[in-house]
Amino acid sequence: LRVLDLARAALNGYVCTRCKPTYWVLSRASREPRGTQLLWVNNTGTHYPELKLTRLPSASPFPVVPCHGCTTLHRFLFNRTSDATKGVVKMSGARTVFVTGAAGFIGSHTVIELLKAGYRVIGIDNFANAVPGENGQAASLERAQELTGRTMEFYPCDLLEKSSLERIFDKYKIDFVIHFAAMKAVGESMQKPLFYYKNNIVSTINLLEVMKEHGVYSMVFSSSCVVYGNPQYLPIDEAHPTGNVTNVYGRTKYAIEQMLEDICKAEKQWNIIALRYFNPLGAHPSGKIGEDPIRAFTNLMPVIGEVAVGKRSELAVLGGDYDTEDGTSVRDFIHVMDLATGHVAALERLEQNPRYKVYNLGTGKGYTVLQLIDAFEKVTGKKIPYKIHDRRLGDIPAIWGDCSLAEKELRWKAQHGIERMCEDFWRWLTSNPAGYRTDNPRTSLKINTEIGCGDSSLAPELDCDK
User: Fold this and answer.
1) Domain with CATH 3.40.50.720 in the chain
2) Cis peptide before 49 (omega within 30 of 0)
3) Which of 35, 52, 151, 323 has its CA 20 to 30 A from that of 94?
4) Nearest Cα to 450, choosing from 136, 202, 18, 187?
């Protein structure tokens, strides 16, 4: 059973405008706080009926926190009872989410939001692009647990090792899969196409086959705005043609999207949401979790950071002759925490059996590279020297998204602007000058090696994470 606290900002007792469930009022138990109503929610899309609380009393024993993108205040409460529900229902049975690429940049931030929302999380990563700690532990996930006060289970595992994946699915009853794991460097993909096709597409096929064998049919897929190719119009919406992709990385994402759509059309039990990201920046506001790739940096912000702290003399800006405001490329930069909450919203949408859906996740605003540099300088007070270089093969001059569909159907909207992205990244960088590499991971993260997943010594030659 799942329990939610629901209230509007003034705690005036309205039902959550984002969830909009069908409900019946239950009889109040004698021990309930005065004025509390219990609502039993009819949710045929889940194995766990929900109990919802509205019209909270002034001295409510329940914590209330802001819902992402929603004016309603709510919080999932799992595996505990309270005075308000004692004698009425015992809460148990949190839904289980299997996360590939869990230790990576977007993966680790999403794990935080999943744990906060009450999900049970099983994560895997092969550390091809994430920092390992001692005994195969994941430094980013250790910190995720510290921040949330909740635990998860983790396996050092690669999706190309199908037998290891099968053993994990044999061990747990998994409800949802979030698939982050992929090679992602645009430039490298043009140099090593076969490597990218194998690691991105074959690994996804392995995952889908294992899911089907174990009766798991719900997935959120980490896609990309690169599937649109060069935009025919801006801002770009989900109806924009796809497939005219300019780089190998994008072609793998497009091929996987087509495969997922075909599966959902042919086999009615599947429900899959593909999230087309724009350009993630920022870090967790605590400064404890951020981007720390072990391969060469491919994202812009970490390189700007290296210039700011003196590790590089200048920033190489790739392309200064685009038909844009200042000649540099335009991107829709989105805070990584907004992406994370977008995944939680997508899981909730899967409960409604959407079959196959795609959503843009961005801010709906485009900024040039030089505008990003200017915002970073304003926030940090650091001057960023730069030099214009030739364009990079496969890059798109300008792209930003229309994210109104996600706002309408997921009840999600990006909350953070470009200066907040710079501020949170700078806090992460200055608090962790060596990234995760100085960590001495603790033992709270439950590392599972008995299943025999992965050999991290092979990680650079296998698939990295999102």
Assistant:
1) 96-461
2) no
3) 35
4) 136
Strands lying side by side in the sheet with 271-277: 356-361, 271-277, 218-224, 176-179, 96-100, 120-125, 153-156, 446-447
User: In terms of C-beta density within 10 A (0-12 exposed, 13-18 middle, 19 or more buried), how is residue 136 classed?
Assistant: buried
The tokens for 258 are 């087509």
Active site residue 119: no
In which residue ranges of the chain is pLDDT below 70? 1-93, 134-136, 293-298, 394, 438-466
Parallel, antiparallel, or unpaired for β 2-7 and 50-54?
parallel
> Contact 77/118 with Cβ under 8 angstroms?
yes
The SS3 call for residue 268 is coil
CA distance 224 to 254: 9
- Which residues touch 257 (CB under 8 Å, ≥6 apart)? 221, 223, 227, 242, 274, 358
User: Of 105, 101, 116, which is closest to residue 68 (Cα–Cα)?
Assistant: 116
CA distance linking residue 237 with residue 98, whole number of Å: 29
pLDDT at site 410: 98
Q: How far is it, in rounded angstroms, from Cα 5 to Cα 72? A: 10
pLDDT, residue 295, reads: 66
Say if domain 96-461 classifies as CATH 3.40.50.720.
Answer: yes
Quick one: three-class SS letters along 45-104? CCCCCEEEEECCCCCCCCCCEECCCCCCEEEEECCCCCCCCCCCCCCCCCCEEEEECCCC
Distances (CA, A) of 342 to 14, 271, 299, 351: 24, 17, 21, 15
Active-site choice (249, 277, 359, 367): 249
- Compute the distance between CA of residue 382 and CA of residue 412 in angstroms, rounded to an integer: 33
In angstroms, the first-to-last Cα distance of the chain is 32
User: What's the length of the chain?
Assistant: 466
pLDDT at 296: 66
pLDDT in tens, 21-52: 333 233 233 333 333 333 333 333 333 334 44
Count of CA atoms in the C-beta half-sphere (13 A) of 324: 22
Contacts of 300 (CB under 8 A, 6+ apart): 279, 281, 369, 372
CA–CA gap between residue 316 and residue 298 (Å, rounded): 12
Angle at 310 (CA atoms; ends 309, 315), nearest 5 degrees: 95
